[in-house]
Design goal:
It is a single chain. By secondary structure, this protein is an alpha+beta fold. It folds into 2 domains: about 160 residues, Up-down Bundle (Four Helix Bundle (Hemerythrin (Met), subunit A)), CATH 1.20.120.450; about 80 residues, Nonspecific Lipid-transfer Protein, Chain A. It contains 10 helices and 6 strands, in the order ααααααββααβββααβ. The strands form 2 sheets. It has a 4-stranded mixed beta sheet. The chain has a two-stranded antiparallel ribbon with strand order 1-2. Strand 1 and strand 2 form a beta hairpin. Helix 1 packs across helix 8. The longest helix has 23 residues. The radius of gyration is 19 Å and the shape is globular.
Length: about 260
């Protein structure tokens, strides 16, 4: 029998708004303090320096005001896990557009500050429960689009920390939302009940085709911490490296997620 369909997880718009605002504040603080040499340092993303990374973050936030101020679509055809699984489709054009924007921007932190003001100006409308927006990949609830901006902020906060040595704090609620979305994306992308993936304290999902577990300890279990899970799901670290460093525990003959990672393009 096919695995039981998962009920889509929902996210409280008020909590999303608070987490987004707080995480953006942390990124802004770090961006304004970057030295010229830190901005020129490799970001860890292929071909991008830290200046380009900050411009990319700004552009991801600029998108909120742009789509909220545009005409709303008639209906949504894109949910959060579909968004996550579709990002690879636009990775190439996004890379090219980001490089072009970075070359034309002299003050990345200033651009990020302007993006923050633009975001604040539309947040009341963006969190409206029935508000729909049209994005490159389709049409979705505006409140869900804000969750995708949380993914951008959390992932790139970690990128900034690792690239510059400047610790960018991660908001607990922001991390929780990102972990859950990425775990749900795995469960949708690789449906099944033979492996249980645990990311305490935020998420536990079952995935991978095979014998269904019904009681007791599952025979195939993967467990890791939230930040390692985010790095795995976004390609910042490999399954093999995470295993070698004991950042993951994996038991059972099916508990190998390497073929299914990363989840985001």
């Amino acid at each position: 029998m096919p695995p039981t369909a998962r009920k889509a997880r929902t996210y409280d718009p008020a909590r999303t708004r608070a987490a987004l605002t707080a995480q953006l504040g942390h990124v802004l603080g770090a961006a304004h303090g970057l030295t010229e040499s830190q901005q020129m340092a490799p970001s860890g993303l292929p071909g991008w320096d830290v200046h380009t990374l900050v411009v990319h973050i700004a552009r991801q936030l600029e998108a909120v005001a742009r789509v909220v101020n545009a005409p709303a679509p008639a209906r949504a055809d894109l949910d959060l896990t579909t968004w996550a699984r579709s990002t690879a489709r636009i990775a190439g054009p996004l890379d090219a557009d980001t490089r072009e924007a970075a070359a034309a921007t002299t003050d990345a932190a200033g651009r990020l500050e302007e993006a923050a003001h633009g975001l604040a100006s539309v947040l009341d409308e963006a969190v409206a429960p029935e508000r729909l927006v049209a994005i490159t990949l389709g049409a979705m609830r505006s409140a869900d689009f804000l969750v995708t901006r949380l993914v951008e902020l959390v992932v790139h906060s970690d990128d900034l920390t690792r690239a510059t040595g400047v610790p960018v704090p991660l908001e607990r609620q922001a991390v929780a939302a990102v972990v859950r979305l990425l775990a749900d994306t795995l469960a949708v992308a690789v449906p099944g009940n033979s492996v249980e993936v645990r990311v305490p304290p935020y998420a536990a999902v079952q995935c991978v085709p095979g014998p269904r577990h019904t009681r007791g300890t599952p025979p195939n279990v993967v467990e890791t911490d939230p930040l390692t899970w985010i790095r795995l799901a976004t390609g910042r670290t490999s399954w093999e490296d995470a295993l070698a460093s004991a950042a993951i525990s994996a038991s059972g003959e099916r508990a190998d997620l390497a073929p299914y990672l990363p989840l985001l393009g």
